[in-house]
């Protein structure tokens, strides 16, 4: 079973690789847009996480104003079978 920590680590690796921000900059309370993530990059992050973990979360929920923790929570909630709410 996939854990929130695995999702967070994968999201962090994607953000540092794609946006070329330092690992120290990516924090749970950092918004995606504060890391330089626009709406397209947010969708790319969602697609990456969906493909990596085979978890369905609607890309329409990909919003640069989400924090890293909120993004991870959306995917973790799908694993737990609870309703996703941004």
TrEMBL record:
Residues 5-79 form the Carrier domain. This is Carrier domain-containing protein. Coiled coil: none annotated. It holds the Pfam family PP-binding.
